[in-house]
Amino acid sequence: MREVAVVGIGETKFGSLPDRSLRDLVNEAGNKAIIDSGLPKEKIQALYVGNFNSSYLCGQSHMGALVSEELSLGNIPTLRVENACVSGGLAFRMGMMMVAAGVYDYVLVGGVEKMTHRETEVVTSALASAADSEFETTLGATFPSLFAMIANRYMYEFKSPREHLAMVAVQNHDNALLNPDAQMHKKITVEKALTGFPVASPFTLYDCSLITDGAVFAVITTSEIAKSLNQKRPLVEVVGSGHAGDSIQLALKKSLTTFSATVDAAKQAYDMARLSPEDIDFAEVHDCFTITQIINTEDLGFFEKGLGGKAVEQGLTSIEGKLPINPSGGLKAKGHPIGATGLSQIYEVTLQLRGEAGERQLKNVEIGLAHNIGGTAASCSVHILRRR
Amino acid sequence: MREVAVVGIGETKFGSLPDRSLRDLVNEAGNKAIIDSGLPKEKIQALYVGNFNSSYLCGQSHMGALVSEELSLGNIPTLRVENACVSGGLAFRMGMMMVAAGVYDYVLVGGVEKMTHRETEVVTSALASAADSEFETTLGATFPSLFAMIANRYMYEFKSPREHLAMVAVQNHDNALLNPDAQMHKKITVEKALTGFPVASPFTLYDCSLITDGAVFAVITTSEIAKSLNQKRPLVEVVGSGHAGDSIQLALKKSLTTFSATVDAAKQAYDMARLSPEDIDFAEVHDCFTITQIINTEDLGFFEKGLGGKAVEQGLTSIEGKLPINPSGGLKAKGHPIGATGLSQIYEVTLQLRGEAGERQLKNVEIGLAHNIGGTAASCSVHILRRR
Questions:
Q1: SS3 assignment, position A222
Q2: Residue A164 is among the residues annotated as catalytic for this protein
Q3: Which residues contact B103 (CB under 8 A, 6 or more apart)?
């Protein structure tokens, strides 16, 4: 397999963008990524698009073909991939693998979701289709309720205080304040997070990620070609990639407090990169709910099981800390345009490694990790990027 | 890249199956394919599922995870791919590429669609989402009307008689009579096809493919491993694969009577296989409408432009002919469970090459081709399989 690099990135502002269509989002982020790469558009040989549910939310399937047409990419092969909230992470993996395998030299990968134009109950239905429709959704389960059960179990097993969840929200809101693309620019306190509008006990509104419009794209090529481009910036290589699965039903999981898909995908990525969790300088970690971030940071090997919340309390995961988590603001505060989320993590990691992250730029970072899950961690991708 | 073989296949009966759920279909076809391979389930390392629009039709996205759980495949990585009607063909390509590239040794690929439980107008909406929602669907275009325009243009350009379209329908109905899995078991005549219920001029009901429930799966491994399995049947290798695209909007295509995505994908597959159209013994060709089959058989290089209909009239494409097309009955008469269709073509080609096609078994076939398009040929996959 050939070595692979990210040579172009582009994203839209995230948020409720009533005056911007699916096409507008694609157009902006896609063209930004291609322009950022410095490559002529004609070089792009294939396109992989992560999109969760425009079929239902926008009456638009076949997103690969739509994106290609909107970006005037000519008659290139396209593919939409969908694995719930890890659609973007897996679009990235497929594109990266096709370059690594030598099938293509230049691939555009992207993710997009347009959600805020629909009523909340329609969006809730669309999101619930990522769970098991027969054994979960039709019985009334939605993702806030499923992850609330996980949170309750976690707090019971590890005698972890409710406040730790709130601290995740506070930290991600703080980070988003420094990210101009973030949906949420609002400082909150632990007290405010704890007393927010109740969603599903123990969660308040502040424990839940956002409903967001947005798109993110990236251009992938081989490291060899990337070097020849003489870009006036550090080279960002993809040194590790993992993809794992678990049961779609929460009831069938072996544990509610360890996400085996995260553990497995991380192991693959670490092995491929010949790195261990201690080598990671910072990470974008899937935080659809506050508890998700805590559990995932443990399953990625960053903290001992049961101590993910304590790490937040101690400031270890802040942008000034030992291992910054979600400098972008995460799904919680940057926003969660489902199909774009995994690419948005790649965007942030690449930006940080290049040293182009502005006010939220981390110091001395060489290796970053992007972690994305779908459903109640029924699917997971992990990518490790390294500055050369 | 490593050489790849299809070592297991399974499909359900196609049709309106009101007593069978999405899960039932997956369970039957998936387990049949695995059993057919003779491999223990634990060997399967990854799963790629083609599914067009269960998000809308069944409230079920995240089909990779659902299929894996239903088939008890354990915690393997899964991915749903969607490119309208070529979702199945591209699930096959992704699985095949991942084995060829050495990422996995054993991959399960499948396609499934459950459609007939919804009202016709809901299914029409779901299908229309494969076109451009902004510039086609919302203006009233549906696929029958789009392909009817193509048919009218074709008949105008090549002075091709309306009867040729009807002859495609008659032939595919004839073939389906010999296929126990086919949805349609009904002999028709040219006269009947011409005078059927009008859909979009020139199409009658008999020019249109069916709304179908069904699932098809296949097990892929390397040719080297396949040989070591000592299966008591000929080895079926995947010797060529192509994937191409074109504009999603019909209005932006350079030609209405040549599908450039078919031409491009076929060229890739022929080049990879070091074969030419003359080497192909038979083919499963995408026939969502009768005109689609005619144009595609020309674009695949089987017949001169404008003579695809004449070839049907002359009997060249019948199962007794020089180049049998759609011995399965095709989308027209076997049925068109969208996400499963591309896999169903692979199923038929594999079965024929093994010599296991029963009453419709073709004589002396060594090389077969499977051709699958999405939308108005905005996406296309072509695969060439060879008996060794």
A1: strand
A2: no
A3: A97, A101, B46
Summarised one tens digit per residue, pLDDT across range A68-120 is 999 999 999 999 999 999 999 999 999 999 999 999 999 999 999 999 999 99
**Strand-pair category, A203-204 with A198-200:** antiparallel
* Model pLDDT, residue A256: 97
Residue in the structure block whose two tokens are 């590790």: A240
DSSP H or E segment with residue A200 = strand A198-200
- For residue B289, the model assigns a pLDDT of 98
d(CA A90, CA A82): 8
- Is residue B117 annotated as a catalytic residue, yes or no? no
The answer to whether the Cβ–Cβ distance between A66 and B261 falls below 8 Å is no
Q: Which residues of A touch B136 (CB under 8 A)?
A: none
Closest CA to A46 of A17, A67, A15, A23: A67
Q: Where are the domains of chain A?
A: 4-119+211-228
* Closest chain B C-alpha to A34 CA, distance in angstroms: 19
Please give, rounded to a whole number of angstroms, the shortest distance from the CA of A82 to a CA of chain B: 5
φ/ψ bin of B183: left (φ > 0), alpha (ψ from -120 to 50), beta (otherwise): alpha
pLDDT of residue B234: 96
pLDDT for A310 equals 98
Rounded Cα–Cα distance for residues B250 and A251 (Å): 46
Cα distances (Å, whole numbers) of residue B8 to A181, A213, B234, B309, B330? 48, 42, 12, 35, 21
Q: Considering the candidates A58, A85, A208, A288, report the single residue annotated as catalytic.
A: A85
- Reported as a pLDDT band with limits 50, 70 and 90, residue A361 is very high
pLDDT at A128: 95
Give the residues of chain B that fall short of pLDDT 70.
none
- Residue A163 near residue A190, CB atoms below 8 Å: yes
Confidence of residue A41 (pLDDT cuts 50, 70, 90): very high
User: ipTM more than 0.95?
Assistant: yes
Residue whose entry in the numeric block shows the structure tokens 């009768």: B290
Which of B59, B78, B83 shows the shortest C-beta gap to A65?
Answer: B83
Taking only the tens place, the pLDDT of each residue in A59-79 is 999 999 999 999 999 999 999
When pLDDT is averaged across residues A157-176 and rounded to a whole number, the result is: 98
DSSP string, B64-113: HHHHHHHTT--S--EEEEEBTBTHHHHHHHHHHHHHHTTS-SEEEEEEEE
| Topology annotation, domain B4-119+211-228 | Peroxisomal Thiolase; Chain A, domain 1 (3.40.47)
Is the torsion defined by CA of B26, B31, B36, B39 positive or negative? positive
